[in-house]
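User: Could you go from structure to sequence for me? I need the amino acid at each position, not a summary. Structure tokens:
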């Protein structure tokens, strides 16, 4: 069983303004508040002797992970499977634009949260499967931990559900706050 410290990246301007980030390559990195959150988090976790720090390869997660890893003298190990959900056509849009322009797709997501997907995007089931595969591999490489995992809201929510036997359909209710650590025990069979 591996101890994972799940961390959602620090705040970005898009978080602040309600813009949907997903995997957009043009999404911004951390803003001033996000960097302050990452520094505070690194200090909060400084008493823990981590075995490794893994991160999504997206900029906002990498910046958060680098801040934590520096405190511990560890490298950041990047894994694209820890990326946020691919939001397809919704990436870069403001919440009100998604609500007004994609009401049918949002209704489908409410009715079938596990398998509905944004146009040209990814389903929650697909996010959960790649996140599960990443954590299985990491737990094999770091069987005793503890290990930091820096990722994104829905990706981490799916991991929280998997680790706590919560139905994946409820993942949208378990999205962690920015830069707030969440401890789980990961069993190889999850």
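Assistant: Here is the amino acid at each position, in order:
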């Amino acid at each position: 069983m591996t101890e994972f410290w799940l961390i959602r990246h620090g705040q970005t301007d898009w978080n602040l303004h309600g813009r949907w980030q997903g995997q957009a390559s043009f999404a911004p990195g951390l803003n001033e508040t996000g960097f302050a959150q990452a520094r505070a988090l690194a200090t909060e976790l400084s008493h823990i002797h981590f075995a490794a720090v893994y991160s999504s390869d997206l900029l906002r997660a990498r910046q958060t992970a680098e801040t934590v890893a520096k405190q511990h003298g560890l490298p950041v190990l990047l894994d694209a499977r820890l990326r946020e959900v691919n939001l397809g056509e919704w990436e870069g849009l403001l919440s009100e634009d998604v609500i007004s322009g994609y009401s049918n797709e949002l209704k489908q997501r409410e009715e079938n949260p596990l398998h509905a997907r944004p146009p040209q995007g990814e389903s929650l089931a697909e996010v959960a499967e790649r996140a599960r595969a990443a954590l299985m591999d990491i737990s094999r490489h770091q069987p005793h931990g503890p290990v930091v995992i820096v990722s994104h809201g829905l990706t981490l929510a799916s991991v929280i559900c998997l680790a706590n036997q919560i139905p994946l359909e409820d993942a949208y209710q378990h999205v962690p706050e920015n830069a707030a650590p969440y401890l789980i025990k990961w069993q190889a069979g999850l």
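One structural detail worth keeping in mind: The first helix runs from residue 13 to 17.
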